[in-house]
Amino acid sequence: MKAYVYGPEGARISDVAQPKPKGTQVLVRVRACGLNRADTGMRKGHAHGAAGGAGTVLGMEWAGEVAELGPDAQGVKIGDRIMGSGGAAFAEYTLADHGRLFRAPSNMNFEEAATLPVALATMHNAVVTVGGVQAGQSVLIQGASSGVGLMAMQIAKLKGAKLVIGSSTDATRRGRLKEYGADLAVDSSDPKWVEEVLKATNGEGVDLIVDQVSGKVASQNLAATKVKGRIVNVGRLGGTHADFNFDLHAARRIDYVGVTFRTRTIEEVREIFEEVRKDIWGAVESRKLQLPIDKVFAFDDIDKAFDHMEANKHLGKIVVTV
């Protein structure tokens, strides 16, 4: 089968053996894949948790059809239209645990479905389960113009947040954040963004920050969070090391929590997917929660898809069809 594999000379489309499902695994005939920021690092040979390096089939999320079931797989049957996340997505066939997938709604095509699994699982967990957002609260999403960022704002609004703030350093994308739930858009590269957030919250700061940037905004986030507020660290696009004002963290008594799928057990991931199904799946099926597709590429043009992502001018998801 065709797959996009990282090797000694970089990533390229190669012929590899079709995998065989075992245990609770499902074999998926992939029809479309969504690109994610972590894919760009792995394409350059970087590790992502336990994954990465030579021989790695790249890709993290997909939509397609059930082609075969492992002996212990439950909840789906051959031919079902599904979407999910996991490794080795950029291929004609991939394997998925039966608890790490969703049924693709009948009103979505495969390209649309492929945009959702990572964003839904990541941001329902960050905003609702860990972030504990409540109706009437205020929320700031750092890095809001990414696919997961756009989803985070929509979930916050769905759960009743009274004020949703999104950040983007790009003026064009910042101007579109209100289409996806932002009441206020700020430029996190402008030192005055904290003042804008404090002004919008009567000087108190927001109840919750979901941070995909980190780096130089880490201490600014502390200043923009209210006393006894919460910060959930989801990503580190702005850097993994930076100054951190421990005194301000203590003075504001902020709960600061880091999250990642890289160190979660399959049981924990299954629980996250189940929480999405129980809590917000109706909004997915009604298309109240959805993501824009910036551009679709054919599988043979997957390198062009990565070039488009690394140009960093897109809004929403980049999709590759298989």
TrEMBL record:
Enzyme class, UniProt record, top EC level: oxidoreductase
InterPro entries: ADH-like_C (IPR013149), ADH-like_N (IPR013154), ER (IPR020843), GroES-like_sf (IPR011032), NAD(P)-bd_dom_sf (IPR036291), Zinc-ADH_QOR/CCCR (IPR051603)
Ranges for domain Enoyl reductase (ER): 7-320
PANTHER family listed in its UniProt record: QUINONE OXIDOREDUCTASE
EC code(s) of this entry: 1.6.5.5
Gene3D superfamilies tied to this protein: Medium-chain alcohol dehydrogenases, catalytic domain (3.90.180.10), NAD(P)-binding Rossmann-like Domain (3.40.50.720)
Listed SMART domains: PKS_ER
Keyword NADP listed: yes
Record lineage: Bacteria, Pseudomonadati, Pseudomonadota, Alphaproteobacteria, Hyphomicrobiales
Keyword annotations: NADP, Oxidoreductase
Organism name: Bradyrhizobium ottawaense
Family matches, as SUPFAM superfamilies: GroES-like, NAD(P)-binding Rossmann-fold domains
Protein name: NADPH2:quinone reductase
An example molecular function term from Gene Ontology annotations: quinone reductase (NADPH) activity
